[in-house]
Amino acid sequence: MFAKAHDHAGQIAGLEQAVRNIKANCTDEGLLKEQKERVNKLRGEVDERLLALQKARVSGKPGKVADKQSKLEQAQTNLLEAQRELGELNRLVKKSRVHSMSGDQKGRDYPAFCIASAEVTAGASAQTSPSADLRFPHERDPR
Questions:
Q1: In Å, how far are 121, 122, 129, 138 from 126, measured between CA atoms?
Q2: HEC assignment per residue over the chain
Q3: In the chain, how many domains are there?
Q4: Is 81 domain-assigned?
Q5: What is the share, in percent, of the chain residues with pLDDT greater than 70?
Q6: 3-state SS string over 94-111?
Q7: Per the domain annotation, does 137 fall within a domain?
């Protein structure tokens, strides 16, 4: 809105290109695939760290064991966070499919990131107004 109101052609072109890229390249399936690949990569890292810790224990060097233990714990933390993110993404994708199948949004198929945006915006509106606007952000009247 600002860019159009102030005739910033460069900004308008950049924003329009960003929207085209999101529509073309950012799908629920793609997001899920990337997150699953990330989880699998982190599982491999945890396995590697566990093996390194076992080797350090065999060596009998306490400093080395402590270092490897610390690295294993960090890898496990990263894996748990990635798994949590995957679960949340699965929940959002399922929710976006329910919206598109229920007809609530005129049969449109909304990507999970759009659902998440609507939830965040609706949550903020609900805190400030008892009659929160629960439509998707792009469906609201600009005020």
A1: 9, 6, 5, 18
A2: CHHHHCCCHHHHHHHHHHHHHHHHHCCHHHHHHHHHHHHHHHHHHHHHHHHHHHHHHHHCCHHHHHHHHHHHHHHHHHHHHHHHHHHHHHHHHHHHHHHHHHCCCCCCCCCHHHHHHHHHHHHHHHHHCCCCCCCCHHHCCCC
A3: 1
A4: yes
A5: 59
A6: HHHHHHHHHCCCCCCCCC
A7: no
For 47-102, the pLDDT digits (tens) are: 999 999 999 999 999 999 999 999 999 999 999 999 999 999 998 888 777 655 55
Task: Answer yes or no: is 143 within a domain.
Answer: no
Which residue type is seen at 12?
Answer: I
Structural domain span for residue 28? 2-127
Residue 98 lies in a domain: yes
